[in-house]
């Protein structure tokens, strides 16, 4: 029984490592997420299945002779490889598909990644929202870009270029200023981590709260003017309605 | 995961956000677009019966054609047509102020623009619609003099 358990554990650990390579800062999220657990379990089951077949068909007798651990280890690693392989890449109607057992694991991996992306962004959104409520994207963007580029000194030129491209893309969004601020904050917190993000936002709020308030006041004033125009149009239509 | 990958993933998230946002704006301003098209048609019909308003009709037909063509970028459509309409109101002010019925439908057209701006909350659309509101106010003042 123990060899089967060890085999499952090896496959599961490989699955966990794959998720950790993408979600380095989100160890807890992986364990809280059912799709994450499912992927780790399917990955473990693949290794267990490989070990089961190898034992059932009496394969690799020379490895078995070296002791049960190496037999389990090599069988499990082979299982990991087989369940991540495909024998062909097919192009059907412009879409690419992998043909092979790797497809099975890929389905669970994509589901786990999608669920984890949603979970992580959701928890980041809850963190970010109250912190940036007093900041306007239009007022604070340049300062935030400057400060974050300075703080993230480890970034290569290429990484800085990609980061600035991301900020530029947010600037061009068809969305209210407050939504742009939240989206920008989500990008920033993904790069800096929560602690550094809070420091940066705290500093920016101290410097730009007043300007941000002005931007918000201007928006409120514009919305008030729109409401005023609407009511004057209604008045005019009511007064001249009988002409139609 | 390196910064490149984080930003690339995030750009995918932004694209998704933009697509959902535009879809939601499209849905919420669909009714307003309909009212704009109807108001323009009525103004054109009124203008068509009066020789002195033929040029106004010609100019409005351009906007009507643009509104009838489905455009995926609703914000550009609202801004472009709003600015064009504002210019038409300025160029034909002298003829329009004599026609209270036309002013009424211009009001309905602008009201739909205001409601669209309130829905999408885009700064460019809001600025354009404020300009339209000012023009309407001007028309009403001059027509009552």
How many H/I helical runs of chain A?
10
Structural Rg of chain B: 18 Å
Given the structure, what is the number of helices of chain B?
7
What do the pLDDT scores of chain B average to? 87
Task: Note the gap between the termini of chain A.
Answer: 88 Å
Biggest beta-sheet profile of chain B: none
Looking across the biggest beta sheet of chain A, what order are the strands in?
A: 1-2
Give the largest chain-chain interface (CB within 8 Å). Answer: A-B, 44 and 41 residues
Tell me the distance between the termini of chain B. Answer: 69 Å
Poorly predicted parts of chain B:
none
> What oligomeric state best describes the polypeptide chains here?
heterodimer
Count of structural domains of chain B: 1
Cα shape of chain B: elongated
Number of domains of chain A: 2
Task: Give the helix proportion of chain B (percent range).
Answer: over 70%
Class based on secondary structure composition and strand pairing of chain B: mainly alpha
Task: Name the beta content range of chain A.
Answer: under 5%
- Which structural class should the secondary elements of chain A be placed in? mainly alpha
Task: Specify Rg of chain A, calculated over alpha carbons.
Answer: 28 Å
